[in-house]
Design brief:
The complex is a heterodimer of chains A (120) and B (266).
Chain A: H1 8-14, H2 20-46, H3 50-67, H4 70-84, H5 88-95, H6 98-112
Helix pairs in contact in A: 2-3, 2-5, 2-6, 3-4, 4-5, 4-6
Chain B: E1 10-14, H1 18-29, E2 34-38, H2 41-53, E3 58-63, H3 72-81, E4 92-96, H4 104-109, E5 114-117, H5 122-134, H6 142-146, H7 156-162, H8 192-196, E6 199-203, E7 217-218, E8 224-226, H9 234-246, E9 253-257
Parallel strand pairs in B: 1-2, 1-3, 3-4, 4-5
Antiparallel strand pairs in B: 6-9, 7-8
The chains are: A mainly alpha (120), B alpha/beta (266).
């Protein structure tokens, strides 16, 4: 099964969205909230801070799953799993992919909504 | 169509993760509900007390389970024990994920009205609201709820202190331990064959309320959801059905005691 960068069809169904404007609002909110959270997570990983890594990864995972950002959610789940065994090489390699996965969410949205303006 | 009318009604939405909270709030505001937002159990209680003081009538609380410093369990317990002005029977709907299953037993003992999975969906949310409205649990006395443990959270006494509500909650007279009902010992002269027949396996669907678990009901990873000796209420059975919808790998069968016929005295 292929995990989508952003499963818009599922999001539309689950969240009762009616049009492009609804999708733009919901995914836009996600992108705005997720970016600083992922930066904080990367800082925690760089510092080897287990508690904050767990806290930010768990919170970001919930948001990623809620919006249907499957690839990003998978990286976050992998980070949470690797924390259980203190597998820091795995945590660091997954951590390095977070912002590019978020950018993919934005790209998918831009493809779906031609006039979508990327979040600054 | 949703059988629950939410327009103009107040709902408390509690989640420490901004987007997850936003998602629930949006589903409700789309149908013109009013939202009281909170980021953990303590801020929720404070916001609810303020809302009630302002004359707002709260329809239901929709809360995450894992939050800091006060989690969803402690919030549920606070409501069931009774804060001033907040009805103890307030419907509480709780999000849970597979890794939160070690806490759901306490939530069931505190008569949570429904479990719903994350990520939220329109259908799950409105079905839960409907269940909460039309199938309320049989609520216990406040003291019964007061004794239920709520791991992973700041406790009720601290919340009361932090909110400046000392004296608002009646403490227990003594630290009364939870005493599970003890299985009747095998009597002299009872054969081994009779001993074996003290329990039976029953499905969650047909099991009737009042039956007592003869073994722990556990998740596939071994977490105890409901412990041995738990007396099943109708609400517990319904919540187990919720959990099986969230995780179909949960066992659909339970071990319960066989009710022995009353001995006739001659």
């Amino acid at each position: 099964m292929t995990v989508a960068d952003l499963d818009i069809d599922d999001l539309v169904e689950r969240m009762d969205l009616e049009d492009e404007e609804d999708v733009r609002e919901v995914v836009g909110f996600f992108l705005e909230a997720a970016a600083p959270r992922l930066v904080d997570l990367q800082s925690a990983i760089a510092a080897g801070d287990q508690a904050n890594t767990r806290h930010h990864a768990h919170a970001a995972k919930g948001a990623a799953k809620s919006v249907g950002a499957g690839v990003l959610a998978d990286h976050l789940i992998a980070i949470e799993t690797a924390l259980a065994t203190s597998d820091w090489p795995e945590i660091e390699s997954r951590g390095a992919l977070l912002l590019s996965s978020l950018a993919q969410v934005e790209e998918t949205l831009a493809t779906w909504i031609p006039n979508f303006e990327p979040v600054k | 169509m949703c059988a629950v009318e939410v327009e103009g009604k107040y709902f408390v939405v509690v989640d420490d993760e901004d987007f997850s909270r936003f998602a629930v709030e949006r589903l409700l505001t789309k149908r013109n509900a009013q939202i009281i937002s909170a980021i953990d159990g303590a801020t929720a209680i404070k916001a609810m007390i303020e809302a009630v003081t302002e004359g707002k009538q709260i329809e239901a609380v929709i809360t995450d389970l894992n939050m800091l410093p006060v989690n969803g369990l402690e919030l549920l317990k606070s409501i069931r024990v009774g804060f001033p002005g907040i009805p103890r029977t307030m419907p509480v709907i709780m999000f849970t994920a597979l890794q939160g299953f070690d806490l759901v037993g306490s939530a069931m003992a505190l008569d949570v009205n429904a479990f719903i999975p994350k990520p939220v969906s329109k259908n799950e949310l409105y079905t839960a609201l409907e269940d909460a409205k039309y199938e309320p649990p049989e609520f216990q006395e406040a003291a019964d709820y007061r004794r239920i443990p709520t791991p992973g959270s700041d406790d009720l006494d601290n919340i009361v202190r932090k909110l400046g509500l000392d004296g608002a909650i009646t403490p227990l007279k003594e630290e009364e331990p939870v005493t599970p009902e003890v299985t009747k010992p095998v009597e002299d002269g009872q054969t081994e064959e009779e001993e074996i027949k003290t329990e039976e396996e029953v499905g969650i669907g047909p099991v009737s309320m009042g039956r007592i678990l003869s073994r722990d009901y556990t998740s596939p990873s071994g977490k105890i959801i409901l412990g041995c000796d738990t007396k099943l209420s109708k609400n517990m059975i319904n919540r187990m059905k919720d959990l099986r919808r969230i995780d179909p790998d949960l066992p659909q069968m339970l071990w319960v005691r066989i009710e022995q016929p009353a001995e006739s005295k001659s």
